[in-house]
Amino acid sequence: MPRLRWLMIGLCMAANAINYIDRANLAVAAPSMSKELGLDATDMGLILSGFFWTYAIMQLPFGYVADRVGARLSLVVAVLWWSACTALTAAGRGFLSLLGLRMLLGIGEAGAYPSFAKVAASWFPRGERSFASSIFDSGSRVGSALAIPLVSWVIATLGWRESFIVTGVLGFVWAVFWMWLYREPEDHPQVSPEELARLRAAQERPKTVDAADAQEQVPWLSLFRYRTVWGMMAGFFCLNFVIYFFITWFPTYLVKARGFSLAELGTLGSLPALASIPAGWLGGFASDALYRRGWSLTAARKTCLVGGMLMSSVITLSIVAPNVYVALLCFAVAYGSLAFTAASIWALPGDVAPTPAHVASIGGIQNFASNVAGIVTTTFTGVMLTVTQGSFVIPLIVAGGFCLLGAFIYLFVVGEIAPLPVRDARAPALRPEAAR
Q: What is the pLDDT of residue 428?
């Protein structure tokens, strides 16, 4: 199979790293911005959550569009959009302008993950898809880890406004390489007909249908008839409720609750994100290895999904940690376990899509639900901090509870991990086999 698949997924990882640097920039800059602009915790929580309103909603049309125009075009448009919005955040002057710019940022970043899932499903067979997903998904942790030291350094050297300009430029550079290098396997001049045939045979899918025929057989709205799709949405909501605590409020937690300086934030504060990078790769490797060793795809994926969610619940133990190092260990284990789980989550759209023309659509649907969690966790944490005068106890207890709930959903609500039946998609009521 074509070796180029690793370059393609590597480009997705780089785009995702930039995605999360731009997304996490505000969280790192929040203490400096709040002081200069007179924003309290509730204001900042609403600004942080504004991103997720548009980001969540736009997952649905972006997934649909990526299936129509292809990942090459959908992803470059998304990156250019969000990079411009990131740079413009430097011009923010108060609550309303910052909220508006964050909402615009969410529109652009919504195109990332559905496009990534489309690339992984196009270039990788089932036995490698979870590891491929772990690679592009690890870009989120690379970006989160880089954001803290990079943005902290730029803020300390130049100022918080300049940090948004610096990080915004990264996406424009990436876009040049993407348009130069990326093609679908069928269109890439370096993929021979024999390599393409082997790749498609190894993907073990039913006979491919034309995209227009696929939409006739399985209209987009009919995807919501499947129980498995709803389970994927609910399970990913639980995981992202915790993930977005790390992305949005974790730097503030370290400063306010643990007394970190800006320098400590840029070093010790990046440890959980750094630990999550190899953990995500391990999750993808483990899921694929179990499948290649003869486990059913359902058993391979669910073992990693359920095990990772259960382990991530240790985040709650950080409340009783006797010192900052034990607390960081709890956070590192939790974040690593979430990354371990996410590799299989992002393999699911390619695993269960009824046709290849529905991969990005299902990826967008599950990511829509998961990012509603971003709205909830950012706003909920901000309100709790205001009500409890800065205590993180309640948010961390609730986070651990969502980890346990997510494990239950992936075990009992998500059905068999297999392509969803095409023929039953337009039936007036779900038959048992269509409820997967």
A: 46
Secondary structure in 3-state letters for the chain:
CCCHHHHHHHHHHHHHHHHHHHHHHHHHHHHHHHHHHCCCHHHHHHHHHHHHHHHHHHHHHHHHHHHHHCHHHHHHHHHHHHHHHHHHHHHCCCHHHHHHHHHHHHHHHCCHHHHHHHHHHHHCCHHHHHHHHHHHHHHHHHHHHHHHHHHHHHHHHCCHHHHHHHHHHHHHHHHHHHHHHCCCHHHCCCCCHHHHHHHHHHCCCCCCCCHHHHHHHCCHHHHHHCHHHHHHHHHHHHHHHHHHHHHHHHHHHHHHCCCCCHHHHHHHHHHHHHHHHHHHHHHHHHHHHHHHCCCCHHHHHHHHHHHHHHHHHHHHHHHHCCCHHHHHHHHHHHHHHHHHHHHHHHHHHHHHCCCHHHHHHHHHHHHHHHHHHHHHHHHHHHHHHHHCCCCCHHHHHHHHHHHHHHHHHHHHCCCCCCCCCCCCCCCCCCCHHHHC
Total-model pTM:
0.82
87 Rama sector, left if φ>0, alpha if ψ -120 to 50, beta otherwise: alpha
pLDDT tens, position by position, 48-59:
778 878 988 999
CB 107 within 8 A of CB 77: no
Q: Above pLDDT 90, what percent of the chain?
A: 51
